[in-house]
Design a protein that fits this description.
The complex is a heterodimer.
Chain A: H1 2-32, H2 34-57, H3 68-78, H4 86-99, H5 114-125, H6 127-130, H7 153-160, H8 167-172, H9 184-196, H10 202-218, H11 225-234, H12 238-244, H13 256-277, H14 282-289, H15 291-319
Helix pairs in contact in A: 1-2, 1-3, 1-9, 2-3, 2-4, 3-4, 3-5, 4-5, 5-14, 10-11, 10-12, 10-13, 13-14
Chain B: H1 23-29, H2 33-54, H3 63-88, H4 92-96, H5 99-102, H6 107-115, H7 122-152, E1 154-155, E2 158-159, H8 172-196
Antiparallel strand pairs in B: 1-2
Classes of the chains: A mainly alpha, B mainly alpha.
Chain lengths: ~325, ~210
């Protein structure tokens, strides 16, 4: 009975996340054309097939838990440029499903977020293809080759401290970058919905946003502290990662208290990395590197819980 | 010896895939066939000669001293092997770096010789040692072939027309991933072959 409850709750989380991801995908379609949409379809198909094969190899049935491969696939596609080579996206998704997830035993034994691991793998293997983007409103057809690629707004901001976009353009995602990570207004709405419906960890999300904002205010890249806070949150996939990677319930510590510090550490270290090396999208890399911290925090949580249970039991035995 | 065959090191108890010995050179340096060939040459020469010579060290000497002697013998054998490797594989030794001299103190010489080889008769030991070395060589070559092909699009520095290159496979983390997958395939194959032989002892079970 408890298992059925857990499954239905997991399915509800997955559905909510899927709705927000599909909305972002739709936005990407309007900004970048059918190539972005086709890329998402390729990622989903490859991830689903890889998951089915993995389930078969591991002698287990395909369950609702395995549906997460689809949301992971959409996350991967949204972290990539709209004109990404389909083959690279497919390899990234295979990596995400097999090596970042199923090798460790599937959803219940995950160490780090599979899309984040896939992103790092792609970054190491195809850096130039991953970090070159089409400007918004330049539509690319399904089989068209990428042309007139530009650096992301994040890279320009990291290197020069300048952001030549109005607040409205930033909110609407009208600046170059990964096709799903630039729609700031949609990401804010998604974050609010997902937090209220308890689909992501509120603690980790708050920790990430607080850490980035705090450090951006204390050590600004440019003259105005408030502008720096604003731009630091919208660039380098900070908001996107805060919602879909750092706050992923499968990875993050369960209690909001620990999750807050987990998010905070990730945000602080990634901001320092951006500040010192101008590394693009550092938060994704740091979220994977901090996987041991999440594991340690989850173990700490478990130990404290076990100790309190054993204390209660011993007290009960004494009174009896 | 306990039903073990002299040829175990080649497949049934492969040096790298089963025993997970001498893994680091495969992971770090096994990314091109040229690197692999140079390492295979030095590893094979140094390991074979060192273990054969060390087998004459009397067992009455305390274990700690014996291990020091084995390491000294292999270090001495490494010197001519290294000089010859500079002639056969110029510039490769520089590229491989510390992993080249580290072959002189690999676990086959320092640990496995005492645990396994020196308990055998000398002829049987020579065959078993040869097979263990061949086991390493085979894994090194296979790994290097696939990693070079997929990471750089070349086979022994000759260009192929592969479109999508996974350059991450040329890095050490790619080596970890590739070797992990190879170990998985090896264990699956070994369990299948164990089942086919009447469900007998599965040789992937340590």
């Amino acid at each position: 009975m408890e298992q059925v409850k857990k499954d239905s709750k997991g399915l509800q989380h997955w559905t909510d996340i899927m709705v927000t991801l599909l909305t972002l995908e739709l936005m990407a379609f309007f900004y970048y054309g059918t190539h972005a949409l086709a890329n998402a379809v390729v990622c989903t198909a490859v991830s689903f097939t890889a998951e089915v094969i993995c389930a078969r190899l591991m002698n287990r049935h395909f369950s609702t838990d395995d549906l997460w491969c689809i949301s992971d696939a959409l996350t991967v596609s949204l972290m990539m440029p709209a004109v990404m080579d389909y083959r690279i996206s497919a390899i990234a998704c295979i990596f995400s499903v097999t090596l970042a997830k199923n090798v460790f035993g599937g959803k219940r034994n995950m160490i780090f977020s599979p899309p984040a691991a896939a992103y790092i793998f792609t970054l190491v293997s195809w850096k130039t293809k991953l970090l070159q983007y089409t400007p918004p409103h330049v539509h690319t057809d399904i089989f068209a080759k990428a042309e007139n690629l530009v650096d992301s707004a994040s890279r320009v901001y990291n290197l020069t401290g300048k952001m030549n976009y109005t607040d409205f353009e930033i909110l609407m995602g009208n600046f170059s970058g990964p096709c799903g990570a630039v729609s700031i207004l949609l990401l804010i709405v998604s974050a609010v919905i997902l937090i209220l419906r308890k689909d992501i960890s509120a603690g980790a999300f708050t920790g990430t946003v607080t850490g980035t904002a705090l450090f951006a205010y204390l050590t600004p890249l440019m003259t105005s502290e408030l502008n720096n806070v604003k731009y630091s949150l919208v660039t380098n996939m900070v908001l996107f990662s805060a919602v879909y990677i750092v706050s992923d319930l499968r990875v993050v510590p369960k209690s909001n208290f620990y999750a807050f510090f987990y998010g905070l550490f990730i945000a602080v270290f990634s901001y320092i990395l951006v500040l010192t090396t101008a590394l693009e999208n550092a938060v994704v890399i740091i979220s994977v590197l901090f996987a041991p911290l999440a594991l340690a925090m989850r173990n700490l949580e478990r130990t404290i819980l076990n100790e309190s249970i054993s204390e209660k039991n011993s007290e009960g035995a004494e009174t009896a | 010896m306990n039903g073990e065959r002299a040829t175990d090191g080649l497949f049934r108890k492969n040096t790298v895939l089963y025993s997970l010995m001498v893994v680091s050179p495969v992971i770090v340096c096994g990314n091109t066939i040229k690197n692999a060939l140079a390492l295979i040459y030095v590893f094979s020469a140094v390991t074979f000669l060192s273990v054969m010579v060390s087998s004459f060290v009397p067992s009455k000497i305390p274990y700690t001293l014996r291990v020091i002697i084995y390491a000294s013998v292999s270090s001495l054998i490494y010197i001519p092997a290294r000089i010859a490797s500079d002639m056969f594989f110029p510039d490769i030794a520089q590229r491989i770096g510390i992993y080249f001299p580290l072959t002189a103190v690999n676990s086959l010489i320092v640990i496995h010789s005492e645990k396994k080889f020196f308990k055998m008769k000398r002829t049987q030991m020579a065959v078993s040692l040869f097979c263990h070395i061949l086991g390493f060589d085979a894994v090194m070559l296979v790994t290097a072939f696939f990693r070079e092909l997929l990471a750089y699009g070349t086979i022994n520095s000759r260009m192929t027309d592969i479109d999508v290159l996974i350059s991450g496979l040329g890095e050490p983390f790619g080596g970890f991933i590739f070797l992990g997958l190879l170990c998985g395939v090896y264990r699956k194959l070994s369990s299948v072959s164990g089942n086919k032989n009447g469900g007998g002892k599965n040789f992937s079970d340590k």
